[in-house]
Specification:
single chain, mainly alpha, 3-stranded mixed beta sheet, two-stranded antiparallel sheet, 11 helices, disordered C terminus, mRNA processing, Pre-mRNA-splicing factor 38, nucleus
C-alpha cells in the first residue's frame, strides 16, 4: 500500500471540526483546534488576511508574514471585531504545531524587526505548552524592554514586551483569547518542577529589609532634626525674654536714679514730656498768637 503524499489541505475548515482534529494534541493536553473560542475562529477564517496570507503557509513562511504584515499585537478590533494579523498567525501556528526547536528559533531573533515574531511565539507557548515550560520560556523575557503597539476595540496603545509577558503569566484573557488557568509558581516549586526564581534585582527579602531599615533611619533623622529645631526655638524665645527683662530693669534703674538725684519735693516735680509734644504745643501757641494779632 503506497503512502499518500503530504499535501496541504485546501479545506481549512477541516481543522475547525469540533468532532476531532487532524492535528496532534498540544503538549499541554488541549486540542489546538478548540483553544480559541468558536466565534473568534469563525471571524479568523472569514477574514481577508487569513484567506490571502495564511493559505499554504509553513513555519518558515510565518516569519515573512510577521515581518511584512504584523505591526501590533491584539485580538479583535473595531465594532465589527475584525481579527488582527497577529491573531490570525497565532491561529495558523495552532494549525501547524511547530516543535520546540522552531519556537526557539523564533524567540532568539532580536532587534526591532523581529519583536512581533517573539511576541507571537510567546503567545503560542502560553497557549500550548505545560505550566513548567511556560514559566521557563516566558520569564527570561521579562527583561525585554522593547516597545510594542497593542490594538484593541478602543484603539491603539503603547506597551512593552515585558508587560505583554506579564499579562500572559497573570491575566486570564489576552488578545481576545481565554487562557487556560496557569498554576501558581509556588505550587510548581513545591512539586519540584521549578527552581526558585532569582530576581535580577537580587534577593527580594533582603531588598525589603534594606528599605525598611532605610525608612526607620530616615524617621530617626527626622525626629532628631525636629528636636534640634525645637531646642533652637526655645533658646531664641529665652534670649528674647532675657533681652526684654534686661531692658525693663535698665529702664527702672534709670528712673530710680533720676528720682534719687532730684532734690525737689515730689509735688513740684513735673512729668517728662516728649519733645514732639513740646513742638506741637509751641506750634499751637504760635498759631494762636498770630490769630489774635490779626
Amino acid at each position: 500500500m503506497s503512502q499518500r503524499p503530504m499535501l496541504h489541505q485546501a479545506d481549512e475548515r477541516r481543522f475547525l471540526d469540533e468532532r476531532g482534529s487532524s492535528a496532534t494534541v498540544a503538549p499541554n493536553g488541549l486540542n489546538p483546534a478548540t483553544i480559541m473560542e468558536k466565534a473568534v475562529r469563525e471571524r479568523i477564517v472569514d477574514s481577508y488576511f487569513w484567506k490571502e496570507q495564511c493559505f499554504g503557509v509553513n513555519e518558515a513562511d510565518v516569519v515573512d508574514r510577521v515581518v511584512d504584515h504584523v505591526n501590533c499585537i491584539g485580538g479583535t478590533t473595531g465594532t465589527a471585531q475584525k481579527p488582527t494579523p497577529f491573531l490570525c498567525l497565532a491561529f495558523k501556528l495552532l494549525q501547524l504545531a511547530p516543535n520546540d526547536e522552531i519556537l526557539a528559533a523564533y524567540l532568539q531573533h532580536g532587534g526591532e524587526r523581529f519583536k512581533y515574531l517573539r511576541a507571537l511565539a510567546l503567545f503560542y507557548v502560553r497557549l500550548t505548552r505545560p505550566a513548567d515550560a511556560v514559566y521557563r520560556t516566558l520569564e527570561p523575557f521579562l527583561a525585554d524592554r522593547r516597545k510594542l503597539r497593542r490594538r484593541g476595540r478602543a484603539g491603539t496603545t503603547l506597551t512593552f514586551v515585558d508587560d505583554f509577558v506579564d499579562d500572559l503569566l497573570v491575566k486570564p484573557r489576552v488578545c481576545a483569547t481565554s487562557l487556560w488557568k496557569l498554576p501558581s509558581r509556588d505550587v510548581l516549586e513545591d512539586l519540584g518542577k521549578l527552581e526558585p526564581r532569582v530576581s535580577p534585582l537580587g534577593d527580594i527579602d533582603e531588598i525589603l529589609d534594606e528599605e525598611e531599615e532605610e525608612a526607620r533611619r530616615m524617621d530617626v533623622e527626622d525626629e532628631n532634626d525636629d528636636a534640634m529645631q525645637r531646642d533652637q526655638d526655645d533658646r531664641s524665645d529665652d534670649s528674647s525674654h532675657d533681652r526684654r527683662d534686661r531692658n525693663g530693669r535698665r529702664a527702672s534703674s534709670y528712673d530710680s536714679d533720676r528720682d534719687e538725684h532730684d532734690d525737689r519735693p515730689t509735688e513740684q516735680r513735673r512729668p517728662r514730656r516728649d519733645s514732639r509734644d513740646d513742638d506741637d504745643n509751641s506750634s499751637d501757641s504760635g498759631s494762636g498768637a498770630r490769630s489774635r494779632s490779626r
